[in-house]
Amino acid sequence: MNCRSEVLEVTVEARQVEEAMLALLHTILLHRSTGKFHYKKEGTYSIGTVGTQDIDCDFIDFTFVRVSSEELDRMIRKAVSEFKDALSNSGSDGMGQISLEFYQKKKSRWPFSDECIPWEVWSIKVNVVNLANEQERQICREKVGEKLGEKVINVVEVINRHEYLPKMPTQSEVDNVFDTSLKDVQPYLYKITYQITDSLGTSVSTTMRRLIKDTLAL
Amino acid sequence: MAHFDTEYQRLEASYSDSPPGEENLLMHVPEGVKSQWHHIENLDLFFQRISFLYNFDICLKNGFTCMLFGEIFELVQLLFVVGFTVFLANCVDYDVLFANKFVNHTDSSKVTLPDAFLPVDVCSARIRDNVFVIFVLIISGVFWLHRLVKFIYNVCCYWEIRSFYINALKMTMSELPYATWQEVQARIVEIQKEHQICIHKKELTELDIYHRILRFKNYMVAMVNKSLLPVRFRLPVLGEYVFYTRGLKYNFELIFFWGPGSLFENEWSLKPEYKRGGNRLELADRLASRILWIGIANLLLCPVILVWQILYAFFSYTEVIKREPGSLGARCWSLYGRCYLRHFNELDHELMSRLSKGYKAASKYMNCFLSPLLTVVAKNVAFFAGSLLAVLIALTIYDEDVLAVEHVLSSITLLGVCITICRSFIPDKHMVFCPEQLLRVILAHIHYMPDHWQGNAHRYETRDQFSQLFQYKAVFILEELLSPVVTPIILIFCLRRKSLEIIDFFRNFTVEVIGVGDTCSFAQMDIRQHGHPAWMSEGKTEASIYQQAEDGKTELSLMHFAITNPQWQPPQETTHFISQLKERVHREATGAPSDTHPMSLSESEPRSLIANLLTGPSTLASVHFGRDSSLTNHATAGISDGASALRSLSPISSSLHLRGSLSAAHRAAGYTGRAMAGSGTDARTVSSGSSAWEGQLTSLVLSEYASTEMSIHALYMHELHKQQSRGELSRHTWHRQESDESSDSIPDEVRSEPNHHSRNFPRSHTFPTTVPSPSAIPTSASANNPFGAGVKIVRSARVPMGGWAEDGQAAPRHHEPLPEESSEDEMPPHIHKVNLLSFCVCSCNINLPVFTAIKWIFFPSLSLTLGYIIKPCQ
User: Fold this and answer.
1) What angle, rounded to 10 degrees, do the helices at B473-489 and B246-253 form?
2) Alpha carbons A154 and B222: distance in angstroms, whole number
3) Residues with Cβ within 8 Å of residue B827, at least 6 apart in sequence
4) Phi, psi of B241 (to 5 degrees)
5) Choosing a second label site near B304 at 20 to 30 A (CA), which of B169, B261, B481, B797?
6) What percent of chain B has pLDDT over 70?
7) How far apart are CA B245 and CA B484, in angstroms?
8) Which residue of chain B is at minimal alpha-carbon distance from A183?
9) Sign of CA dihedral A18, A20, A21, A25
10) How confident is the model at residue B326 (pLDDT cuts 50, 70, 90)?
11) Listed residue (A197, A168, A166) closest to A2, CA to CA
12) Closest residue on chain B to A200 (Cα)
């Protein structure tokens, strides 16, 4: 695929899943958001400001920084809690993966719908463990905090590299690059998906699509 | 939750006022961002389409419009053919037409055409009752709709690519047919710097683009090269037979690359579990069961596919057969041949042009083997049929009522067909029998052949094996028709057994390249990893027998890629290999005795390569044949063999169309001179920047020279390989095993290995057997070889072959687009036939309207027969 993919792996206790996911997703989004663009002319704009917020975790010894936007937080919380529920309902060994995908839209001509072209995918693999006693939980609490700290540094390192980012758009194209639906912050277009076990393989839909595409190719 | 607000609070949301110091904070969007060509999702597909459109443009000048109109007309034609066939079958009262039944008319005694038509209700009832017709109608309806949707989809896609060519690559469609692929590619590389269509890398290399376009094809080529695919069979009557059709190829690709549960996760990456060796047995089981299911699905769909194939063949080939009935007797490169002969990283158009250049020599070679007895019989049959035909036609010309006599027209047609068939068995009178030489010329174009062909060109075994690569068109069509029935059998009984080897192959030969994804490691053309010690990479290669590519594929592919893409910067060792080889070839080329001026265009012995190239067109190929065959005979021992190989190239140079002005030829010669010097290869790319017509012309000429240069290198490498294999015959004996007896036939040398790993594993000969070094094998190998030492190594009489299919339309086109295929007697055959016909019409002064009617109805057969009868008289 023509996109970067980064994989983060964490091992947490069941009750820590939500906070750990929020910490990582918010950290990534913090670096992938800008202030709102205010266009003066077609190609000239000024950037609004973005506030940040420190969040302390309840179940992990960890504090992270997020964009102080309630709306964004709500959306991410929703996705994460869905993931958490699915994970606890699955009843299996507690493996799951949540991915945050940044994409660009490409307007297509009439018969085709708009294409979403990902340019960066962050996959967070979660491994849920069950702990026997309180003492272990206490150790885990600290260890997960440390681990998350490492991951955050990892994320920042990746983001600091000079790599491909969509070019800044003109006013008419801003919707193709940024999510402009939020009123106080403007992240790059993103999509959060999750997957409980990683053995799904080629789904039927992709195969069908490929089959149709292949028969159509000259 | 503790909530700590920092001082970095957001300002209130409703800005109507600007932030402070706004004048300085204003950002500007740089110009030129509006192009839509940044960051393309599926680069594989994108590059494939670019290459496809390029191919199309090469074949048909101004390809896009032509494609559009051609497709539309074809759709209409299809509709017509189906409708008309059904009409003929169901709505015509043939008794009336054949005058078996009497029509009672009151006004006149003439039978009119509408009389023969059945009434509409009867007709539709007949159609409705006939299940088979309904079935055919439904299938062809689906077929037609599929074509229509495909057409619309393709137009949309290629319109986009076309605008990419125009807007991003800045090439107009009119100049595209004259641009070389290398120019297009250079522009893509430029575009990447600006727009970053691939986001992993700042710069794309040529190899990246090739890898993306040919990802799966490289796998197929490698699998054929390592004889992994079950395409060769030992049949009771036919002997060894290669069966590889488009249907089979489609199924292979479905299984390996994109079908449900295939080995590839998406177009660019192999599934991670296949990259790990741990559970290979389980994966092999899974693959085997998938193959079984797909085979069963094929079996169930067999009737539908069969009807589809018949319709397809009917619609695709009737037109061709009508236009040139001889084309069924003509040959074409088989699907297997195209896969076997393909280099790694060779695009379709490169392969096609190479094979098309070899076409003439190849068919000449095959014609050498016409049986003399058959020729005599054919001549006589043709004589009798011809005389009968002549009488009938003469009578017809005298009085057209002869045509009204029963069966006269049909016998004329049949006789014509008979003569056509006979003629294909009568060899050209001026044919010189020198298969060895012809095979060399073929080799110069096709670049690959099994070792045991050399020196055995005159033998029927060689011919039979060559015919696996170069089959009759008719056989090709027949195989395609049989394919729906045979494919499931092959899948279920042959491919399934190979599942473990396939799993091992994909695991061992897949590498991940940044910015490209998973590719076949053979396609990296790394001498060190996949070189074959018998092909000049002695000492440089660390490949085990399992890893080395057969037939010098790695080395030849590398040379081919380096020559066609002079700007490509290979890794250090590879560069060393290339420059070393080029230097050697150059030395051999110029080391040939030269006592006269090299540029002299006399008929004398060609002095140097350049002189050779220039004098080539003016001398007859046959002259060279005679001379060179004597040369090669005594030159086989010495090192001067390389030179003789080069000299024997002169027939090829005759195919170079240096028909331009003398000055152009001189300039081109200058370029070649530099190109030959090894350092000056970039001369070819000088023109890549300029878009002027002149620049394009030179670049075309230069790419032509690149192909000649490659021919020289291929010949040279084969020659060296021959010497080397004579010297130390045993180095490269990796006996290919019979593809159809996979696991049982562990060869003796492997079995006799004391500490053999396959003891622990289920037997699979493609599983790396960690043979310590190639030199460990010689003794056992030569023991295995009944001829023993001293005799040329016969690596099992099998030729490695495999599969790659392409659109059927391309197949008949083979030898057409080439400018150099234009000797006198190969003028388009109907040109003088039409003249003849009109001549007859004029001179005999017969009833013109009737004759024209006849001409239009029976034009093909009549014109042919006339042509054939009168031509010998001239």
Assistant:
1) 40
2) 40
3) none
4) -135, 140
5) B261
6) 62
7) 9
8) B13
9) positive
10) low
11) A166
12) B261
Query: Whole-angstrom Cα distance, residue A42 to residue A173?
Result: 10
Q: Taking CB atoms and an 8 Å limit, are B25 and A50 in contact across chains?
A: no
Measured between beta carbons, the chain B residues lying within 8 angstroms of A169 are 29, 33
pLDDT at B663 over 50: no
Select from B653, B697, B698 the least CA-distant residue to B674.
B698
Residue A106 sits at the chain B interface (C-beta within 8 Å): yes
Instruction: List the 508-537 stretch of B: residues with Cβ below 8 A of A.
Output: 517
Give residue A41's pLDDT. Answer: 79
pLDDT at A87 over 70: yes
Residue B813 or B481, more confident: B481
Q: How far is A209 from chain B (nearest CA, A)?
A: 10
* A107 pLDDT above the threshold of 80: no
- At residue A74, does pLDDT exceed 90? yes
Nearest to B261 among A50, A68, A201 (CB): A201
Q: Which of the residue ranges B25-34, B480-489, B568-577, B719-728 has the most confident prediction, judged by mean pLDDT? A: B480-489
The three-state (H, E, C) secondary structure of B612-638, written as one string: HHHHHHHCCHHHHHHHHHHHHHHHCCC
pLDDT at B852 over 70: no
**How many CB atoms neighbour CB A23 within 10 A?**
26
Which range has the top average pLDDT, B534-543, B550-559, B684-693? B550-559
Q: Which of A5, A22, A42, A46 to mutate to test the interface with B (most CBs of B within 10 A)?
A: A46
- Report the C-alpha gap between B186 and B493 in whole angstroms: 47
CA–CA separation, A52 vs B448, rounded Å? 66
User: Which residues 105-164 of chain B have a CB within 8 Å of chain A?
Assistant: 146, 149-150, 152-154, 156
- Cβ of A117 within 8 Å of Cβ of B39? The answer is yes
Lowest mean pLDDT among B302-316, B406-420, B463-477: B302-316
pLDDT, averaged across chain B: 69
Whether A106 contacts A114, CB under 8 Å: yes
Pairwise pLDDT comparison (B172 vs B596), residue with the higher score? B172
Cβ neighbours of B517 in A, within 8 Å: 1
Residues belonging to chain B: 874
- No. of helices (H) and no. of strands (E), chain A: 5, 10
Which of B31, B39, B64, B262 best tests the A interface by mutation, with the highest count of A CBs <10 A? B39
Residue B92 contacts residue B116 (beta carbons within 8 Å): yes
Quick one: pLDDT at residue B266? Answer: 77
- CB atoms B200 and A2 under 8 Å: yes
Closest CA to B703 of B343, B204, B179, B51: B179
Provide the phi-psi class of A140: left if phi over 0, else alpha when psi is between -120 and 50, else beta: alpha
> B407: exposed, middle or buried (C-beta count within 10 Å: 0-12, 13-18, 19+)?
exposed
Give the distance from residue B134's alpha carbon to the nearest chain A alpha carbon, in angstroms: 24
Please state, in angstroms and as integers, the Cα–Cα distance from residue B740 to each residue in B242, B485, B488, B695, following that order.
12, 18, 15, 52
Out of B27, B258, B260, the one facing A47 most closely (by C-beta) is B27
Q: Which residue has the higher pLDDT, B819 or A94?
A: A94
